[in-house]
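Suppose you are handed a protein chain with no further information: no name, no annotation, nothing but its sequence. What can you learn? This example shows the usual starting point.
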Amino acid sequence: MEHPLLQRLYDYWNDKRAGRAYPGREQIDPLELRFMLGSIILIDIEPEPLRFRYRLFGSEIVRRQGFDMTGKYLDQHPWSELAAMAKTAYQQVLETGEPTKIRRNGLIGDQYVRHESLILPLGHERVEMLLIGVVFGRA
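A reasonable first move is to predict its three-dimensional structure. Written in structure tokens, the prediction is:
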């Protein structure tokens, strides 16, 4: 990982899975994620038809992007290019059960920023949720 917060999130997730493919949601304690709580996204996966619903959209992400996706679906995201990139990454994690990253330089509001996300699977017999950490920096 390039960003230390994303490395810390990965290490936390890796510890919580305790040798399993991925941890369940109940293994994740929000109090233990205080180091990046405002930069976390939680996504519920609805399998039939496949849809990704934002359960939590962190306050720092809302502040940086200017909108809140909590309770909404990925296909309602106002930035279609980012939504398409995210959908591809989410599907990859769903199919493989392995973490992945998205890196992007682009316009957020009226400024160009660097945007990096770590996408981590959560679940039991299958991937049921996604835990995502997002960090921003100037491009």
